[in-house]
Amino acid sequence: MRDFWRRFRSRSGRTGLYLFVALLIVALAAPVLAPHDPYKQAVVRRLKPPVWMEGSLPANPLGTDQLGRDNLSRLIYGARISLFVGAATVLGAGVLGTLLGILAGYFGGRLDYLISTFINAAWSFPFILLALIIVAVLGAGLQNLIIALVATSWASFARLARGEVMAIKNREYVRAADALGARTPRMLFKHVLPNIASSLLVIGSIEFGRAILRESFLSFLGLGVPPSIPSWGGILSEARAYIFTMWWLVTLPGILIFVTTLSVNLLGDGLRDAFDPRLRGR
Fold first, then answer.
1. Where do the domains of the chain lie?
2. How far apart are CA 151 and CA 145, in angstroms?
3. Distance (Å, rounded) from C-alpha 181 to C-alpha 15?
4. According to DSSP H, which parts of the chain are helical?
5. Bigger pLDDT: 199 or 154?
6. DSSP 22-60
7. For 58-81, how does the pLDDT look when each residue is reduced to its tens digit (9 = 90+)?
8. Averaged pLDDT of the chain
9. CATH for 2-31+66-275?
């Protein structure tokens, strides 16, 4: 860890790390940090403004929604859904796409042709149409939402892994390991995968932020997380009727989505600089 922190000297990367850790702590400690029950309704206190505006309630520092639920508590609990969806999507799409990309780039031939065909098909298919088909067939829900996001994200990992493997499979250290009798699994996971990890970290950070945006988009359309579960996209969807009269209802979750996406992208750039052996001496 000491050696990693020494190499992880990018200011933007550390800023992204601090922001992401803060968001993660908020999500994990939501039951402790949330001042109210995010599901409790109180219609008599509906649509109250934040504390810096006239007519606010001290007990609800960020106001209340159309059902009188505390906005701050719902935003805190919404961080759990957004971060979980982003992590689950990157994990699922990363494992699937990286494995297929490594196999296609290393073995080539018919296997490469078959996998490349699926990659090109996934890239050419519109995201929203594919997501709508999956959700329509499987039904709305958190699990089905993650399946839809994985199905629309794995091709990015596969294309990157395939190109990187094709570039390094003929290098000296790979040939030397092959000449010494290294088995294929060891070749792939010991000599090939570690040398493309930095590129995968970058695309993973991009896809993490993209998954959060897509979850918000699908939840905004009512096709993502069920309305009963607080999520930033769901909060935006419920507040769209008041977008011109009560701007804070859509602005606050929008800011959180922006900050989360920015922190992950900054963290990904910092991790790339720290792990890429070609950049360590700079």
1. 2-31+66-275
2. 10
3. 45
4. 2-7, 11-28, 30-33, 71-107, 109-124, 127-138, 142-151, 154-168, 172-179, 184-186, 193-220, 232-239, 248-275
5. 154
6. HHHHHHHTHHHH-SS-TT---GGGTTPPPTTSTT--TT-
7. 888 998 988 889 999 999 999 998
8. 84
9. 1.10.3720.10
